[in-house]
Design goal:
The protein is built from five helices and 25 strands. A hairpin with a 4-residue loop joins strand 20 and strand 21.
């Protein structure tokens, strides 16, 4: 299957268009520009430099990870990364390969490998991935409408069965699993006892229901999911919005997006409800409660605080018009994400909060003028001074308030090469 076919397959709602036919000529033009010494826009850092394995895995690593194996250089060229999951205990980044239909990984030392157990699952377009601790990987076998589990003890191909294609996974605070059913336009909760319950969506595409129960709300093409602070964030892609579901009350609201397809990024902080999105594919959260939207057809990555306020320039990433960021994960102050066009694993630093100038000190209170005694009769006029002694009236301004100290200069984070 060609790269263009895989891109279209990853977005089943989109009809074939002409835009991808120009990807190869554009890439050749960029290559010619770099060879000719012309300036091009800076891009994010690649975690797959040269599309080459940096080093072979050691035998100790193989013993530590019995279900995994090194990725040969001959296979490295075939990787088409899509969905991501991160294990903070081991520092291993997992990702699905939607060309070879398998799960691969990247270790902290930069080496790559294959999750051997994923090969026996015979996956078909794995579009979502979730890591539960260091023991279990959940893979959305999208075309087969199921979720498969990979464990140290073995595999469970039909861990969860769905009625539609699964395009997003997230684990809740009670260890329940939430998944997006793209075809039914629902989000489903799978409890530990195996029961499945629709928590958002009416099984019909559309937009409605903000402020009410999630089961009465309408979604349209739900994709990526994320859980933070007992809230479930939903990439409602075809509504060009991010919806948020309160897991305690099951009330749903729009968190970001005005419902209008757009690419313009505000230059200053605004409400997320005033920001135009363009088919967001994924939504990611960090430990501070910030929410990152992978605005796939923007293309851009936008950041919002936990209250829904847009934070400009939080993610230092520059995209060309033909880029297609797909999925992301926050790792050690960086946003790692996949691009459908390159295809690559990319990394962009997350900026620290820009220091704001302190508020100016309050102005000193005005002194009341002393009361003048009431005159019974006007005083006699003063004698006219001679020209040599004419006094010049001088207006003395009140003392100025001390100037506010200048804010420290903001220095963007430097990009390091892994």
């Amino acid at each position: 299957m060609s790269r263009r076919q895989m891109i279209l397959a990853a977005y089943p709602h989109r009809r074939p268009t002409m835009e991808y036919r120009f990807v190869l000529p554009l890439m050749l033009l960029l290559l010619f520009s770099s060879c000719a010494g012309l300036k091009t826009r800076p891009g994010p850092q690649s975690l797959m430099p040269g599309r080459k394995q940096p080093a072979a895995l050691t035998s100790a690593a193989s013993e530590e990870l019995p279900l995994w194996q090194p990725l040969p250089d001959s296979e490295f060229e075939k990787i088409f990364p899509y969905a991501l999951a991160y294990d903070p205990n081991t520092g291993i980044l997992f990702f699905t390969d939607i060309v070879s239909n398998r799960v691969c990984f990247r270790r902290p030392d930069g080496t790559f490998g294959i999750v051997t157990a994923s090969l026996s699952l015979q996956l078909s377009l794995p579009l979502a991935l979730e890591c539960i601790g260091s023991t279990t990987l959940l893979v959305a076998d999208t075309d087969k409408k199921r979720i498969s589990a990979i464990m140290r003890e073995g595999i469970a191909p039909d861990f969860i069965l769905s009625n539609g294609r699964i395009t997003g996974l997230a684990v809740g605070p009670d260890q329940s699993l939430y998944y997006s059913d793209y075809d039914a336009c629902n989000v489903v909760r799978a409890a530990s006892d195996g029961t499945q319950t629709i928590v958002a969506g009416t099984s019909a595409p559309g937009f409605a229901g903000d402020g009410g129960d999630g089961k009465a709300a309408m979604l349209n093409g739900p994709y990526g999911l994320a859980v933070s602070n007992n809230r479930l964030f939903i990439a409602d892609s075809l509504n060009h919005r991010i919806r948020v579901l309160d897991l305690a009350t099951n009330q749903i609201q729009t968190f970001a997006g005005n419902g209008v397809r757009g690419k313009d990024i505000p230059a200053s902080p605004v409400s997320g409800l005033d920001v135009a999105l363009n088919e967001p594919r994924d939504v990611v959260t960090d430990t501070q409660g910030n929410v990152y939207v992978i605005n796939t057809f923007g293309p851009s990555i936008l950041c919002f605080d936990s209250g829904g306020q847009f934070i400009p320039a939080m993610v230092k990433a520059t995209f060309s018009e033909n880029a297609r960021p797909a999925c992301g994960v926050v790792v050690d102050g960086n946003l790692i994400y996949t691009d459908l066009v390159t295809p690559q694993l990319l990394q962009s630093p997350i900026a620290a909060a820009v220091p704001q100038p302190p508020p100016p000190p309050p102005a000193p209170p005005e002194q009341a003028a002393p009361a003048q005694p009431a005159a019974t009769e006007p005083p006699p006029p003063p004698p006219a001074p001679t020209p040599e002694t004419v006094p010049v009236p001088v207006s003395t301004p009140p003392p100025a308030a001390p100037a506010a100290p200048a804010p420290p200069a903001y220095t963007p984070p430097s990009t390091t090469t892994l």
